[in-house]
Design brief:
The chain has about 375 residues and is α/β, with parallel strands linked by helices. It is built from eleven helices and 17 strands. It is globular and about 65 Å long.
C-alpha cells in the first residue's frame, strides 16, 4: 500500500527513546496511519549513545551538532528532547525553516524563553506541541470527559502532586546531574516533575489566577561524579509546594519533590466537585477512583473503575481487554499519533494536545510559584 511518509529528527536520546518508540509504534496501533513517521536523524552530545539509540530504533543518520539535524532536508518534524536550556534556539531555528515541532516539557527554562518559542511557532504557522504526554493516558482523558460532561458538577477544589526519588536523588551521595543546575534546567523538581501536575491542573480544571508557594533545597551539594569527594552546588529546588486560585473560583494545592523515598512515580490528582469526586495515581495508571453522589443510601463511596475497557478513550486501538493493562509508553503512541493526524487533517493540536501556548502558560505558573517562594507573598499569574 502506497503511503505518505514524514521525516522525524530527534534531538536528545534520554526521553528521546520514549519519543522514538512512540513515532515507530504508532503505525502499528493506528494502522494504517494517515502519515507514516520515518526516523530520519538523531542528534546528541555523546557519539556512543547516539549510535546506540540510532541502531536500536533505526534512524537514518546521526549528528553530533543540533544545527546539522535541524538543517537536514529529510527532517520535516523537529522533536526536541534535549534539556530545557537547549529548547529555545534549536526549536526557533527549526520553526524559521518551516518545520513542524514537538518539544518536551518544560517548554523552556522560564516563561520569557517559552514566549519566544510560542511567538516563533505562531509566526511559522506550523503544528507545534509541548510534550505533556500524560494527557493521553486513558484514565486522564476519561477524567477530563467526566469533568467537562458535568458528572462532577462544578469543581471547587483540586489537588495535584508529582513525587518520586528519581532513582536515587534522596541519597546525598548521588552525583550531580544537569537537572540540579539552574543554568541548564531552570528549576528543579518544580519543572522536571511538577510541570506535569501543573499542566493537568489546567487541562482538567482551568486557568490559574494566582499562587503562593514555598520551596527548599535540602541537599545543597552533590559529588561531581560517583565516588568523588569533590562537591558541586545544587542551585535548584528539591521540593516545592503551593496554594493555587483558579480563574473559575476553584482552589488548589500543588506539591512536587524528587526526595520522596518510596514514591516511584506518584503523579496524583484529586478533583472535588459539587456532585462528585475523582482521584488518579500514575502508579496505578489503569484505574480511576470515582465517587458520584447519586448512590443509594449505604452504597456511598469511591469506585475503582478500570479504564482499559473497549469503551474507554483510545482503548479500541490497543490489543487489550478489561483484564489487561495499558502501559506508560503507550501515552507517547497516543500523543504522537494525535500530532500526526493533526498535520494530516490540518486541524488544531489543542485542546486535547498541549500546544506551545500551553507550555508557555505552564511556565508562567512555574515562574509565579518561584517568585512567590522568594517573596513569601501571593503572586498573580499573568493572563
Amino acid at each position: 500500500m502506497s503511503q505518505k511518509e514524514i521525516g522525524v529528527g530527534i534531538f536528545g536520546y534520554s526521553i528521546g527513546k520514549a519519543h522514538a518508540f512512540g513515532w515507530t509504534d504508532l503505525s502499528r496501533y493506528y494502522y494504517p496511519p494517515k502519515i507514516k513517521p520515518k526516523l530520519a536523524a538523531l542528534a546528541g552530545r555523546n557519539k556512543e549513545n547516539v549510535n546506540l539509540e540510532a541502531n536500536r530504533f533505526g534512524f537514518g543518520r546521526t549528528y553530533s551538532k543540533w544545527e546539522d539535524l535541524v538543517r537536514d532536508k529529510d527532517v520535516e518534524i523537529f522533536d526536541n528532547c534535549a534539556p530545557p536550556a537547549l529548547h529555545p534556539e534549536p526549536t526557533i531555528m527549526a520553526l524559521e525553516l518551516g518545520k513542524h515541532v514537538v518539544c518536551e516539557k518544560p517548554l523552556a527554562k522560564n516563561a520569557p524563553d517559552a514566549k519566544r518559542m510560542l511567538d516563533a511557532a505562531e509566526k511559522a504557522r506550523v503544528k507545534h506541541m509541548t510534550g505533556f504526554n500524560y494527557r493521553f493516558l486513558p484514565a486522564v482523558t476519561f477524567a477530563r470527559d467526566l469533568i467537562k460532561g458535568g458528572a462532577l458538577g462544578k469543581i471547587h477544589f483540586f489537588k495535584g502532586a508529582y513525587l518520586n526519588y528519581e532513582g536515587g536523588f534522596d541519597d546525598p551521595n548521588f552525583p550531580i546531574k544537569w537537572m540540579h543546575q539552574s543554568d541548564v534546567a531552570g528549576y528543579g523538581a518544580l519543572t522536571d516533575l511538577g510541570s506535569h501536575a501543573i499542566d493537568l491542573a489546567r487541562f482538567l480544571v482551568g486557568e490559574v489566577s494566582s499562587v503562593s508557594g514555598a520551596a527548599e533545597t535540602f541537599i545543597k551539594e552533590r559529588p561531581v561524579q560517583e565516588g568523588s569527594s569533590e562537591k558541586a552546588k545544587v542551585d535548584v529546588d528539591d521540593t516545592t509546594i503551593a496554594c493555587m486560585k483558579f480563574q473559575n473560583g476553584a482552589l488548589g494545592l500543588f506539591e512536587t519533590s524528587w526526595l520522596t523515598s518510596g514514591r516511584v512515580d506518584y503523579l496524583r490528582f484529586e478533583a472535588y466537585g459539587t456532585m462528585g469526586t475523582i482521584r488518579f495515581n500514575l502508579e496505578n495508571l489503569n484505574e480511576l477512583e470515582v465517587f458520584i453522589k447519586d448512590e443509594k443510601k449505604g452504597l456511598e463511596g469511591f469506585r475503582r473503575v478500570p479504564t482499559v475497557g473497549r469503551d474507554h478513550p483510545y482503548m479500541k486501538k490497543f490489543w487489550t481487554n478489561q483484564g489487561v493493562g495499558f502501559a506508560w509508553q503507550y501515552s507517547f503512541v497516543n500523543e504522537l499519533n494525535h500530532y500526526i493526524e493533526c498535520i494530516a487533517d490540518d486541524r488544531a493540536i489543542g485542546p486535547i494536545g498541549a500546544t506551545f501556548e500551553d507550555g508557555y502558560k505552564a511556565m508562567q505558573i512555574v515562574d509565579a510559584i518561584s517568585e512567590s517562594t522568594k517573596s513569601e507573598k501571593w503572586v498573580t499569574v499573568p493572563n
